[in-house]
Amino acid sequence: MSPPLDWLSRLLEMTPVRGQLDLRCYYGAPWRIDEKASPDGEIPYHIVLSGSAMVEDPAGGAAQRLAPGDILLLADGGAHSLHDGSGARPKPARARAAANLVFSENTGTGDRLDMLCGRFVFTAAHARLLRSYLPTRLIVRSSDKSDAGAESGTGADVAGLLALMRKESGVDSLGGRAMLNALSTALFALTLRFASESDEAPAGMLALAGYPRLAPALEAMFHNPGGPWTLPSLASLCNMSRATFMRLFQEKLGRSASDLLTDIRMTMASNELRKTSASTGAVADMVGYQSEAAFQRAFKLHVGVTPARWRRMTDLDK
């Protein structure tokens, strides 16, 4: 008998994420990195090991400073820039390939930066559930003692993981590449856990998870997406009125409970259509639709193609 899964474990079971460490940057100021937008199935990340970096707001807002121990995730995969903050013309960087990693270095003589750069990779079909409900730009400050668990628990786990990534990326050990990617994969779950436990959880699903009054509804939707959930039944799980539930859910998540439930169901349906030979009607029933026609309409609206077309497309990918 399998143990019940918490919402984050269930999310990662439905939307598997694979971490990949691509680069370790050793820069002296002045330096600058300009990254293009990522494909639909990628979320870039950066970890400042030592020194500092300024990350620009693509919307034109104030730049934010990243300090040692800070982790930056860009859930929307948008173009972004990091620099030393001096405004001086950056020194050109050159790449040096080692056994397990590529190092990028420049000739700058100013303040030094040591930073890991990588990405979290998933299938494009899972992009909506991952990107729509995570903050566009998530900065986790693992060294901030004001955050929950910074000195013990999850905070200590994050610090330990970053220390191990720093060590493994600095030597050419046997199996080092596999180790670095496995650590990067663990980094995704651990970063989201730590962010949800902080005193001020960021917007989206992390804020929802960090709000105990709404946690029962979140757990229920992930644990049993095919259940006969209605707004009144979800509100009842949280011991609140329908109106209060709807208001708080929208306030914390930025989307309605119905939106989230539909996205969870369609993600689950996409997976089932890809990996099983179950009929469309059986998949519809599995994800909570009593009418196959209603499921077909919802799936096409969500995915852009019919369930049958989706199954044929994914069969070609296997």
How does this model look, in words?
The chain is an alpha+beta fold and 318 residues long. It is globular and about 65 Å long. The chain contains twelve helices and eleven strands. The longest helix is centred in the middle third of the chain and has 22 residues. The protein has two domains: 194 residues, Jelly Rolls (Sandwich), CATH 2.60.120.280; 107 residues, Homeodomain-like (Arc Repressor Mutant, subunit A, Orthogonal Bundle), CATH 1.10.10. The strands form two sheets. It has a seven-stranded mixed beta sheet with strand order 8-9-1-10-3-6-11. The two termini are 30 Å apart.
Question: Which key features would you list for this structure?
Answer:
single chain, alpha+beta, Jelly Rolls, Arc Repressor Mutant, subunit A, seven-stranded mixed sheet, about 40% helix
